[in-house]
Amino acid sequence: xxxxxxxxxxxxxxxxxxxxxxxxxxxxxxxxxxxxxxxxxxxxxxxxxxxxxxxxxxxxxxxxxxxxxxxxxxxxxxxxxxxxxxxxxxxxxxxxxxxxxxxxxxxxxxxxxxxxxxxxxxxxxxxxxxxxxxxxxxxxxxxxxxxxxxxxxxxxxxxxxxxxxxxxxxxxxxxxxxxxxxxxxxxxxxxxxxxxxxxxxxxxxxxxxxxxxxxxxxxxxxxxxxxxxxxxxxxxxxxxxxxxxxxxxxxxxxxxxxxxxxxxxxxxxxxxxxxxxxxxxxxxxxxxxxxxxxxxxxxxxxxxxxxxxxxxxxxxxxxxxxxxxxxxxxxxxxxxxxxxxxxxxxxxxxxxxxxxxxxxxxxxxxxxxxxxxxxxxxxxxxxxxxxxxxxxxxxxxxxxxxxxxxxxxxxxxxxxxxxxxxxxxxxxxxxxxxxxxxxxxxxxxxxxxxxxxxxxxxxxxxxxxxxxxxxxxxxxxxxxxxxxxxxxxxxxxxxxxxxxxxxxxxxxxxxxxxxxxxxxxxxxxxxxxxxxxxxxxxxxxxxxxxxxxxxxxxxxxxxxxxxxxxxxxxxxxxxxxxxxxxxxxxxxxxxxxxxxxxxxxxxxxxxxxxxxxxxxxxxxxxxxxxx
Length: 627
Hints:
Helices cover 33% and strands 19% of the residues. The chain starts with 24 loop residues before the first helix and ends in a 19-residue tail after the last helix. Mean pLDDT is 87; it is low at 12-20 and 621-627. It is α/β, with parallel strands linked by helices. A hairpin with a 5-residue loop joins β12 and β13 (322-327). It is built from 23 helices and 24 strands. It has 3 domains: 1-50, no CATH class; 62-357, P-loop containing nucleotide triphosphate hydrolases (Rossmann fold); 373-618, 2-Layer Sandwich (Nucleotidyltransferase, domain 5).
């Protein structure tokens, strides 16, 4: 025991307990000489393997295991991966992962290790790595692939003649030129191809990839192209990014309606009068133990009496196979996080959030800045308990599907409890997908698959409304085997429905546009009347008036606790994802073509009507019309 143990950034006695530390001297004394020597020998062997063959032997932070679980990579435990994903609300593996990272947070190391493992673990894999320029690729990206190369091949690749294996395998690397021809091929015929953003888009159109890594500054257009290049091989797309350029179109494409599903305290961004806590920031967080509930109470360090900003660790994107994860500075002990923290701890708050926690600051003209999922979005079961009057609003169209909202007005405010189409199956259609999707170029998003017309007529829409509201006449018609005796759709009423809908409104612009039919003027409103589905018209107030109504209903003072006097008056069921998307992303800049406009139009109509709560004793029932 005369030789001092080797130093290692994660194995030094005295750092916080979540890092594997050298045992205290008293522990060695208790073990005795033989056991202590065995321990130290095993430790030295582990450190040797890490230095010589880091692809499979390096120490890895818990965040890397978390990201592996999201991606369901082949080397992670399948049961653990599924447990972690389900705990965070992911029903299936992530295929596109945006890794927003602090400076020196280890994001590039993770991406290089991951795509290198895919290339080396099995044969005949296609791996692509993108950087801003060819020089950046050779200086910054390609050396990481040399590091994460099996030891035997690394030595051969850097020899004078390089490595050759049969007619396929070829690897040659020099520090000056990187890999020959900006690619290498493993003995098992996996190809790793290094490209850059200055190349023409057409160069990337024909590729089929098992894994792609884009490091910094990838354009939104290129990302969209590469998403299509991983589909045939069920591949992965990793994007590593420090958001120093703010809320760029590429960042917006992921952040739009992304939901934080795991957060951590930002010890260098206090939420009280205190100073940043550098020692607490050095703490390496065991995110897997947190998710599984196996973390010991003494493992999660929080300075007593202090408050710090919460920052996201994982965000679930609007597209369910995409996610955003965040690499914090302490996740990478190899990167000298203490020095980085010292450098930025006195910088402005936004700069600290970017540089130390990888958080892009949103700069957009959202129409509803007070909307907050944590406040305004409620579980469906909670809204189901609210007593009030139900109202249906419809935004019709010929070139796309109708959009409909059911809103319950109570003494406490308005509750959106159903939307159509929604994230549920529709008979004969299935799940139609989102109404609007993220778009890098347009803040309001682009039209989603749910807007594509189903080819329905008005009778079919009435049938769908009857199905959702559980009209008894529909149930009777479905049970009647004789078509001649079956009640016609135009004869159905909502008499006896368990869901009492007091009033129905249709967009006045579309419903009152006249047309001539058999020498008689007709409108959509009269067509509905013929079907005995009776609507009133929505108001025609200016849009700005309606948007102000929505903002008034959403308002609460976020510097005070939510209570009876400080509470919003507009809430949305968590199942109404299209409405939530609209509230988060609508700007009005897209005009009539804005993809998420329809739910916003119906909300403003509902609030402009000032419907409010009507007690049961004042409700007058008109069979077939209102309840």
